[in-house]
């Protein structure tokens, strides 16, 4: 349970949030998913089902990734990371707040020192969430890929910084396959037909992840994991 949610909304408000989330999941989102996708889920019980707190990394294949992931891991609660522009949209923000998502990033028009403070504040909130026993889910790509493979900018440091702050927390890698071909994805070979689209979601836990090479080295290895099936090095020099 989220202690900060209890403080913000009170005990009654906290449980009202749980009821609303349960209604959305059971009555709207999950029925939609089952109607449109033929799901295959691998490794969930052996990964998130066995830990109270983990850094969850997801390849970003479509706009449906987050609702599907939150729905299939239910009742496990995930706190996702959302780009600030998406978080600020009036029709999305209530749902992001309901599910305790983190807003990250800031406008390029802001002074560099202000952007740095925004980044530090967002990172501190995620670090505190992990310390309190919550799951934090993010996509290091920073956006939806086009279905041709995962691409992570070398300078993106969010995942690296979370692992460095919590080196003993398990890293759960989630691989989404199929959603890139849905109407919510950006693949060129989209599937517009009446049959349910096959979607496979695979969970894999990696502990003691190497941070050798800093953010660029870690991002490159994550790319290789998703694109080429090369396992992440689990033991190595912890770079800072």
Give an overview in words.
With 240 residues, this protein is α/β, with parallel strands linked by helices. It has a single domain, classed as Glycerol-3-phosphate (1)-acyltransferase. Helix content is 40%, strand content 17%. The protein contains seven helices and seven strands; from the N terminus they run H-E-E-H-E-H-H-E-H-E-H-E-E-H. The chain has helices at 3-36, 65-73, 84-87, 93-98, 112-131, 158-165, 214-228, and strands at residues 37-42, 55-58, 78-83, 102-104, 135-138, 171-177, 197-206. It has a seven-stranded mixed beta sheet with strand order 1-7-6-2-5-3-4, sandwiched between helices. The longest helix has 34 residues, at 3-36. It is globular and about 50 Å long.
